[in-house]
Specification:
Layout (H helix, E strand, L loop, with lengths): L1 H28 L22 E3 L16 H5 L5 E4 L8 H12 L14 E5 L8 H5 L5 E3 L14 E3 H11 L16
Antiparallel strand pairs: 1-4, 2-3, 3-5
The protein binds iron/sulfur cluster (2 copies).
The site of one iron/sulfur cluster has 13 residues, from helix 2.
């Protein structure tokens, strides 16, 4: 009886081995999907979702297109976002006079405070990359970065100001080639 049991066990073990080898063989023949970081750079980032980043404006790509509405912060289930709005600039004496006149006429003075945020605080250590903030942004001012190389020694290294990050990216942006001098023309 014991010999039959042993035989069954051996057949079962061999079957498990064959199944395992089949899976290994299948993936062994497929193209490699991982890289030996840091010796090789990650090339395909199409589907990668890194930390959040602010999208720049149309006129100035290093100024966020964010309008400080706070919808992303409200929608975030992990409380990762704090939007700090800009304070209204101190009016000049002329502006103060114009404001007083408008008030006297019962007109509502125009708010000239820039809409982009003073600071956009983001805690990547809490973010689940769910994308709810992006879905709730009315102006498409947020996206996932392609930064695969983010590393740090403490939680503080993953808490940053996205406005500052966008401005800092200006320093690393490729500089535009200076325009070639116009060819000299000689008049007859
Ligand atoms: S991706 Fe999700 S968790 Fe991360 S900041 Fe946006 S809403 Fe919050
Ligand atoms: S990122 Fe979008 S949702 Fe968030 S404050 Fe700016 S404009 Fe509003």
């Amino acid at each position: 009886m014991n010999a039959i049991k042993e035989a069954f066990k051996t057949v079962s073990d061999l079957w498990s081995l064959m199944v395992g080898l089949k899976v290994t063989g299948k993936y062994f023949l497929e193209p490699q999907r991982t890289v030996r970081y840091p010796w090789k750079a990650v090339a395909n980032l199409d589907t990668f979702k890194g930390h959040l980043e602010l999208v720049g404006g149309v006129k100035d790509i290093f100024t966020p297109r964010c309008i400080s509405c706070g919808m992303c912060a409200l929608a975030c289930p992990s409380n990762c976002i704090t939007v700090v709005k800009r304070k209204a600039p101190k009016p000049t004496p002329e502006e103060e006079k114009a404001l007083a006149e408008a008030k006297a006429k019962g007109e509502k003075p125009k708010d000239k405070t820039p809409k982009d945020p003073e600071r956009f605080l983001y805690d990547y250590s809490l973010c689940s990359l769910c994308g709810t903030c992006m879905e709730n942004c009315p102006v498409g001012a947020l996206r996932f970065s392609k930064n695969v190389y983010m590393a740090g020694y403490s939680r503080n290294d993953f808490q940053f100001d996205l406005v500052l990050k966008l401005r800092e990216s200006e320093a690393h942006a490729p500089k535009a080639e200076p325009a070639a001098p116009a060819a000299e023309t000689s008049e007859a």
